[in-house]
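SAMPLE LOG
Freezer: B-3
Tube label: C17
Construct: single chain, 347 aa
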Amino acid sequence: MKLKKSKMICYVLSFPAIVAVLFGAFLFIYSVTPICSAGEKTVVVDIPTGASLIKIIKILHDADLVQNRFLFHALVTVRGGARLARAGEYEFAANITPYRLVDKLLHGDIKKYSVIIYEDSSLSQVALRLMEYKLISEKDFFELSQDAGFLSSLGIQSSSMEGYLFPDTYFLDRSMSTRKILRIMVERFHSKVSPEMVRQAAQKGLDVNQFVTFASLIGKESGYAAEKPLIAAVFYNRLKKGMPLQSDPTAVYDLEDFKGKVLRSHYKRKSPYNTYLIRGLPPGPIASPGLDSFQAVLQPAKVDYLYFVSKRDGTHHFSSSLVAHHDATIRFRNITNREEKAEKAVQ
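STRUCTURE (predicted):
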């Protein structure tokens, strides 16, 4: 009788352990079984700031990523889900396993956007690029880009961030504030435009803002690295002679209705940036130059050119005299006109 009673006690005491083992095994199978077999399909969910575990599970359930809330809650608890999850946008493969899903949440594996900011983009173009990915507030972007206190905290000695948002590839996520994104881009500028480069520019009589401004003019004039030192030489030579730089991009800078073609009327447009009307460099950059433009400022070609005119292929013809420049302008204009007429005839 006592033996039967002892066995009964053992069974009672061992029952919870057996249940726990069975549940653990079941939970393991659940955790490594793909949610669905939808191939390469992905699902994007947004976890709001301060969301509770129950709220997060509901969001995942509504996105068809969690079928059994109880088992998923148990899995999260086993994995240490008290700190689940960093707010932000997450992208999951539809055939992800619950274990991997929890892992991504625990590690804050937020969806990153690869954003390319192209060389010689203006401040407005950078804003449009970032807005394409819904990464910034347009209002905050332009307010912060001209906020004196913020500019000073970033080491920018200018009235705007124009020219200081370095062209590069950035990996950004939507949990980042506009302020943080701007800071990242300006810090990239400081990491690329080294103190040694700034020192060399100072030896040429250029402060940081003038250095960036000079480079931005070169970048807007030519997209070909090989001829940028020649463009730089032309500008240096004109500055030494007291000649206006007469850079076309400055004549249309900050012109909202610019159609893409510089007209003679633009040369007379009153603007502090228009180098057809002002002497020397404009008051600030007109775009974000790349490194080859900065290098051209520091190492201009040793030539006596004073003029250049665009050729059909986007490169330029350089001249040392006004007569030669005039001849080249007529020649290349005629070539362009003939080619345009030929293209229209074919169409």
